[in-house]
Design brief:
alpha+beta, 5-stranded mixed β-sheet, 18 strands
């Protein structure tokens, strides 16, 4: 819409984004650091999430904010990267004071990328720390970077028919209100252009010359054929709106509609789809308005995650068919 101005996600204040990756082994992590403790909500719609400290985000829990969100490869192993994030934050005096101790609150989720190149190499505390150091540059990047390094899509018939995906960002501003998204797309399903029938990436046909519909193939076979743990889209919404934890949960729920508008099928028992939502400012708005904008930016970020990813590790990408 005309009143929506596209901005860089790095234009949103009080938040920094950093990445670290092992390109040779096809994995990595991404961290979203908050300069000040941020109220955070979470929406989980997939059946198999790999996550850390997410119970703190229940609106009935006493926690009132987080210091960082980790998005990582490595499946449950990748949760180790949070230790490096905590170390970095502690060194910089950021965390919850508990007596003499300082405890940074770091939540996070992981994708399953163990089959991409080397299942024995996963993000660890050292990589998590490196992503925090990288956040000091706070550069906007998309594609094969950070937690998106080992991401793939269209996997219901196995890796040979899958395509390369990655990480995407997108942000907009309406008046003083800013809303942005960071997403790692590692779905069993196909990715479509926002609110259209144009398939951008997903299940390849038998000879690899084009794409077919995962939804139609699943109906034809009467089943989705994929490993339970191998698919997940994980995202973080960031906004300068001043909202509470319970309001940010609603934002996360509405933001998940952006996933449903761009990935098909999605939210299955074989996905771990999770969306975090962080309030990093004090601009007056409502959870419904912010959530509506969040769905839009998340869908756009998902599109970028496939469109700005190049061929890698033998996987074709959306760019393979746009040349």
């Amino acid at each position: 819409m005309a009143q929506w101005k596209e901005i860089s996600i790095t234009d949103i204040k009080n938040v920094r984004i950093g990445h670290a990756q092992d390109e040779q082994n096809g994995t990595g992590c991404t961290v979203i650091l908050c300069d000040k403790k941020a109220p955070c909500g979470l929406d989980v719609r997939g059946g198999g999430p790999a996550s850390r400290e997410t119970q703190l985000l229940d609106p009935t829990a006493s926690n009132d904010g987080v210091h960082a969100v980790l998005l990582s490869g490595g499946s449950a192993y990748g949760l180790d990267a949070a230790g490096g994030v905590m170390k970095y934050l502690e060194e910089h005096g950021i965390g919850l004071k508990v007596g003499k101790a300082l405890v940074p609150i770091v939540v996070g989720s992981c994708i399953f990328d163990l089959n991409c190149v080397n299942h024995q190499v996963r993000p660890d505390a050292k990589m998590g720390y490196a992503a925090c150091v990288d956040s000091e540059r706070n550069l906007e990047r998309n594609g094969n970077v950070g937690a998106g390094m080992g991401a793939t899509v269209g996997k219901m018939l196995g890796d040979k028919r899958a395509m390369k995906s990655g990480l995407g960002t997108y942000a907009i501003q309406v008046g003083r209100l800013q809303v942005g998204a960071v997403v790692v797309v590692n779905a069993i399903g196909d990715v479509f252009q926002m609110d259209s029938q144009k398939q951008l990436a997903g299940l390849l046909n038998k000879d690899g010359t084009g794409m077919i519909s995962s939804e139609e193939e699943a109906v034809r076979l009467l089943q989705l054929k994929s490993h339970f743990v191998s698919n997940t889209t994980i995202a973080a919404i960031v906004t300068n709106a001043g909202l509470s934890k319970s309001q940010m949960k609603k934002v996360a729920q509405l933001a998940s509609n952006g996933i449903a508008r761009t990935i098909r099928p999605v939210n299955t028992s074989m996905d771990g789809d999770s969306v975090y939502a962080l309030s990093c400012g004090n601009v007056t708005s409502s959870s419904d308005v912010v959530g509506t904008l969040a769905a839009h930016v998340l869908g756009k970020a998902i599109n970028r995650a496939v469109l700005e990813t190049t061929e890698m590790y033998g996987y074709r990408s959306a760019q393979s068919f746009l040349k």
